[in-house]
Amino acid sequence: QVQLQESGPGLVKPSQTLSLTCTVSGGSISSGGYYWSWIRQHPGKGLEWIGYIYYSGSTYYNPSLKSRVTISVDTSKNQFSLKLSSVTAADTAVYYCAVDRWSLWFDPWGQGTLVTVSS
Amino acid sequence: QSVLTQPPSVSAAPGQKVTISCSGSSSNIGNNYVSWYQQLPGTAPKLLIYENNKRPSGIPDRFSGSKSGTSATLGITGLQTGDEADYYCGTWDSSLSAGKVFGTGTKVTVL
User: Fold this and answer.
1) Which residue in chain A is spatially nearest to B54 when comparing CA positions?
2) Which tens digits make up the pLDDT trace of B79-108?
3) How far apart are CA B96 and CA A116, in angstroms?
4) How far apart are CA A101 and CA A11, in angstroms?
5) For residue B50, which of B91, B102, B82 has the smallest C-alpha distance?
6) Chain A: nearest CA to B45, how far in angstroms?
């Protein structure tokens, strides 16, 4: 079955760009009907959807983050990535990648990676 | 803040039943499928219910989902200590700020 694993720096300086990659195993990122998503969770808080990408490259972002977010896909590596620019301490969170099946539900999720924004 | 409202916490003794509500509007729950997720302490969320009331393979039938109008409900029967977790509802919101949305989350405590 499909498994996801996030990777990237755990510490990012304010005003810089947060970059994370999600590696997909056990299935192809080019599978139809699957939207490859990023979700974050601020410490002790609820879940916030960041956006998703389809294997074709089409994207959809959370309007509240849209101006700072870029999600891309590399089908040759079976990976998709998140870039969040101009970060502040408010972007400190656990970042999850997940499969959005037919844009209806998220399953499975990666284990998550904590990103701290601090100088 | 989330457009889907859940009670902050619910509790019950082992073996009892709890229900968790998820209240929204016509722009989200009223016209879209609802899913539910369980987040055990220190772990990633896990899908419990999809398309309002369907359980993925491996999810026990102690967990159930329903939807009526602009609200959805997750039920857990035969409560076990291992059910202590945070639970979130999720759906699509087609308002001006369209996108995927999650509920505020509910902490289930087994007394």
Assistant:
1) A105
2) 999 999 999 999 999 987 789 999 999 999
3) 31
4) 31
5) B91
6) 7
